[in-house]
Amino acid sequence: MDRIIEKKKWTPKKIATIVGIAVGVAILTTIFLSTFGKSRLRVEGERMTIAEVKKAGFREFIPVTGTIQPISTIYLDLQEGGRVEEIFVEDGVILKKGQAILRLGNTDLELSLVNQETSVYNLLSQMQIAQNGARQNTISRLNQTVDVESEVVEAKRIYEINEKLLTNNVLAQQDFNESENRYKYLLEKKKLVKEISEQDSLASVEQMKQVEQSYKGAQNGLELMRRKFSDLTVCAPVDGQLTSLDAEIGQSKGKGERIGQIDVLSGFKVRVDVDEHYISRIYPGLEGQYKQGDTTYILVIKKVYTQVSNGRFAVDMMFRGKAPESIRRGQSLQIRIALSDETEALLIPRGGFYQQTGGNWIFKVTKSGDKAYRIPIRIGRQNPDFYEVLEGLEPGEKVVVNSYENYGDIQELIINNWQLTIDN
Question: Which of 14, 30, 274, 328 is the most exposed place for a label (fewest CB within 10 A)?
Fold first, then answer.
C-alpha cells in the first residue's frame, strides 16, 4: 500500500533565501535611517561657506552706476534763422566766452535793419527841423517883446509929459486922452505878447518832447534790430568745450533750432540712474561713496529727476570737497548711495541661502563644528554686503550661508572635514 510523503515547507534553500532578503532589508533600513530617517545629510566641508555672526555698524545703501558729466551744459539754440555762411571752429574745440562759432545770412533781417536805420535818420532830421523852428519862433517872440516894451516906455513918457501939460492948461484934453489910451493899449499888448510867448514856449517844449520820444523809440528799435542782426553770428556764451555741432555751409537753420552745446569744464557732476523702487527714499542731500584705491570720496545728491523711464529715474550728484584728479567726462563710477545712517546691528554676510529660505530660517553650526541644524530667524534690513538679523542668532555663532538648493527638507547637516571648514 502506497504512503503519502509530506513535502517539507522549510528547505535549506528557502531558508537561505529568506535570510538573505532579511539581511538586505535590514541594511537598507539602516542606511535609510542613518541618512534620511532623522532628516540628516552628510556634506563636504570644503563645499560650504560658513560665516560668523557679528555685531557691527550697519548702513543701508544701494549700489548704482554713475557717469561723469560736465558740471553744466549750455545749449546753443539759434535766436534767428538763416543760411549758414561761415563756420569758424570745429566740433570739440575749447572756446573762450564771446568767441565766434558760425555766421548765418538772412536778407530779410538785413533789409529790416536798413529800413529801421532810414526811419531813425528821418526822425533825426525832423527833430532838428523842429528844434530850428522852435529856436526861430523864440527869437521872433523875443524881438516882438522887445519892440512892445520899447513902445510902452515911449508911450509912458509921452503920457506923463501930457499929464503935466494938461495940469498947467497947456495941452488940450483930447490930446491927453489919446496919449493915455495909447499907453494903456501898449500895456495890454505887452501883457498879451508875454502870455503868447509863454504859451508858444510850452508848446515848443511839448513838441520837442514828442519828437525826442519818437526818436528814442526809433533808436531803441534800431538797437534791437542790430542785436537781432548780431545774433546771426553765433558766439560762445561761456568758456567751455564745443560738442555736438550740427551745421554745414549752405544749410538753412530755423529760429530756435539747436545747433550744438558747450560743456563747462570747471567741474564735474555724476548722473546716476536709480531703480524706481527707491524713488520715495531718494532726495537731495543724501550721500554716496565712491572708492578709488585706498581713498573714499563722498558725493551728495543735488537734484532728483522724478520722471521714470524704463523703470528707472535719474539723479545728479556732486563731489563734496575735491574730486579725483583722474576722472574724465563719460567715465563710469560705482557708487553706494546710503539710505540710512550707520547704526549698530547683528549682521551675517549675504549668501545664496536667502533664495531658498526667504530669510525665515538658517543652518546654525554647532560649537563642535561637525554639525549644523536648522533654526528659525528673522531678517530685517539688508545691503549688498550684509543682512541684519533681528531674531534667532547671537554674536559669535556660526551659520551656513551658501545656497541650500541641494539640501531639500533636511533638518541637520553632518559636516565632513569640518575642522578644515572652520579654519578657513
Answer: 328
